[in-house]
Amino acid sequence: MKRMLTIMRKELIHIVRDPKTLMLVIVMPVMMLALLGYAVTSDIENIPLAVVDLSKSEASQGFIDRYWISGFFEITAYAESEKEILELIDSGIVKTGVLIPEGFGREIDTGGSSPVQFYIDGSNPTVAQAAQLAAETIGQVASQEIFIENLSKRMGGVDFKLPIDARIRFLYNPNMKRMDFWIPGLVAIILQIQSLLLTAFAIVREREQGTLEQLIVTPIKSWELMLGKILPFVAVALVNVALTVGVGMFWFGVPVAGSIPLLFGLSLIFLLGSLGLGVLISNISTNQMQAMYIASFIMIPAFILSGLMVPRDNMPWLAYYSGYLLPVTYFLEIVRGIITKGVGLTYLWPWVWPMAVFSIAVFFLSVILFRKRVD
Questions:
Q1: Whole-model pTM?
Q2: Taking 70 as the threshold, does the pLDDT of residue 16 lie above it?
């Protein structure tokens, strides 16, 4: 214990002696969370819409009102023809357009059917798909309501209803805020990246500076050295957990539905594994540049395979099972489970135990590899 505390003291001195780096280590996760939060979590709304209303009837106006009331579209231009809509889309002034034909009001009032043409700029598939889904939904709802209203009029004012009243209940994130989905994921990814970088240079730095030989001749054991190098960074990383979760709560307004002490406890297990992985990288690297490349080789797949950006269930089997080799895959489910769903350890256990096994395995692998180098 004494020897391990000596190593911890040595690492803490290195950290304290470089206040600029320490400040950067603490501030960087907050900056990354803020930048990435605004960059990738913005909901698609207020899509610019151009309108051509050739009918100019009460029915057409009511139909148009549905688009801007929905919040998905913002009417930014009125045109007189299809040609004008296409010109507005070509110039980038609007992303969508709707053309209501001249006989729209008459057909609706007489119980007929009238086509409505909707135009979408498909250059950005994300915006285009959101606009398509919103436009189709608005059109279907309007069509159903008009059909029932006309049928009621024909049957002498009888109150008709659709045979199936499908009601949807969202158990978590009832307002469907994308921020509530993205922020917990970004917290996990940012902690993964920083914990790797914090310790990826721990051993290789000693080797390049020529101080590793001094550690080898001391009676300190391999596991004491590894643990002594990891634990000081655990304290720094836990500060980052508090900062990132605090920014998510108070800056982005993402509430923590579950237990904060449980979140910190499971974060500790994750950080031990991630920091241990950084030490493992440092063990197998011969210089700091090599350590950086190996760390990048892990960080880039973490974005893709962990399920942050793309649901893992939709991935090919090779990519799906490769995600289990990354600790952030398990931690991502844990963070979202606690912050978004508010579930406890009983429900998170299928993700907790593999993460714990990973952390222990990585630590012992680091010890074994270092012992081989000592020999």
A1: 0.72
A2: no
